[in-house]
Design brief:
By secondary structure, the chain is of the alpha/beta class. It has one domain: Rossmann fold, CATH 3.40.50. It is built from 3 helices and 5 strands; from the N terminus they run E-H-E-H-E-E-E-H. The protein has a 5-stranded mixed β-sheet. Strand 1, helix 1 and strand 2 form a beta-alpha-beta unit. Helix 1 packs parallel to helix 3. It comes from Bacillus songklensis. It holds the Pfam family Dehydratase_MU. InterPro entries: B12-dep_deHydtase_bsu (IPR010254), Dehydtase/Dehydtase_re (IPR003208). This is Glycerol dehydratase reactivase beta/small subunit family protein.
Length: 110
């Protein structure tokens, strides 16, 4: 596997301006975890987006953000309706950081 093939997927609703999710990205960058940012046009809950993101991610962890600014960190091995973490965009940096820590096997930051 090429180093470029290792990343966490972030799926967000296309009605949400991408600048609003920069704090989530900053949390991942602080932990040095690469990510792939993708818009989704279809309406869906942040939990559905998170599960889809985790399913697409080579690291099996993904982040979903809906049009309301609700965010979840999901793992591919969890039940679709039970994300690992959930919160809102004002706490996006912390969620990004904890998603990265989940991948790295480090304690979560509270």
């Amino acid at each position: 596997m090429n180093k470029r093939d290792i990343y966490m997927t972030i799926l967000y609703n296309s009605t949400l301006p991408s600048d609003q999710i920069q704090e989530v990205c900053a949390g991942l960058e602080e932990e040095e975890v690469p990510f792939l940012l993708q818009e989704r046009d279809k309406a869906g809950s942040f939990i559905e987006l998170g599960w889809e993101a985790a399913s697409m991610s080579p690291l099996q962890v993904g982040i979903g953000i809906d049009q309301n600014g609700d965010v979840c960190v999901h793992h591919q091995k969890l039940k679709r309706e039970e994300p690992y973490l959930q919160d809102s965009l004002p706490n996006g940096r912390k969620l990004g950081k904890n998603a990265a820590r989940l991948i790295k096997g480090l304690p979560l930051s509270f």
